[in-house]
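Researcher: Batch entry, complex prediction.
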Amino acid sequence: MYFGKKYQKRFQSDLITIMPRLWRFALSLAGQKDLADDLVQATCLRALERESQFQAGSNFAAWTMTICRSIWLNEMRSQHLRKTGQLDTAIESSLIDPSPSPETNIFAAEVFKQVMRLPEGQRSVVELVFVEQFTYREAAAILGIPIGTVMSRLSAARKTLAPLKQEQAKQMKKGELA
Amino acid sequence: MTYTDEHLRSYLAGSLDSETAQQIEADLESDPILEQRLLALEGLLPVVQQGFAEIPDADHLKQLEDKIFAQPTPANDHAAAPTFVRTWSTRAATLVIGLAIGTGFMYWADDATDWRQEVASYQALYVKETIASLNRSEDELKQELAEASTAVGQQLNLSDLNDLEGLKLLRTQVLGHEGAPLIQIVFADPNGAPVAFCILKDTDAAGTIMQSTSLKGMASADWTGNGYRYLVIGGQNQSRIDTVAEQIHSRVL
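Model: Structure tokens for the complex:
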């Protein structure tokens, strides 16, 4: 439960701007849409409460995502674990509707599904580096882990996701031929 | 050590010898250029980006954004910036009918668009003497709560309103706001000062999290959920009001 403090319009506007990125990161941690919503909500409110702690000129998205990771690990993850008994959360595969027929959508849905099937640790690193395009170093700072751990998680994820690269190459070839 | 692109591609493919791979990872700690070179060669990057291109759904995000930022705040409380306040401002607020304290409905309204402000204006008239003579029996309190439950469409139990930071339940009234039932449950705090818990039925209301605000000089906390607006208000002890609101929230909503 949260009680609002002083909301500054500018700060709120900055939060809205980065919300798509924040939501994707929250999803990579939580693995479920409703949990991601709760996590984003808690993160925004915590960020608003701590507005004075943000250093102007530093990376706002990274700062917010660090808060998000902290809330997930220290508050929500353990609650979820107690409730469900699952160490990793269930994967929601319906976020991308695969029904639109273009093959690109089907492929995008497959990519998304494969990423979401990764273990939580790999999923969050993949999201930060490949989707949000943080550097390895920035991803390590957000997740509070050594850069070596980022690299080893990425290495494991690359092996799992490698077939997607081949599939994309096939699709591109088809597209060129068509 | 200098690495060729071939080294780096092999590293990313997992086919580089472990000694060189470890050296690359060690060098990454202090070599941002090496980091940039590796990132530029990440072949999976555009593939994974394709998978997240439509994530999150724009409508879903907008709903979430409204939910988070529709909270009334000290800064925008009177400016009516929150979404639900803007929604309310579109409604007619003209009905002013008199009082029928105790048994009937009481409607009041003026040009104000925020129901909390209207409740606060009413609550501000309460003093210790207003409630000093209220002395309902348990059966009477249950009867009033039953009538209120029927009027507002939400079950209100006596047990949900006990043990609230020393508050003593005194009376429940069915009031009205713009034609919608509004329940006012009156308590006395440990000093005999009035505190109220109000429920307004509003099926269009979007769910909002709890918000503490000073209204008409009184501490208050409000939230919205399941088609109802809730407000706890009275006195100047914000901490007590927040705690009471949290307890009620956990029992009622």
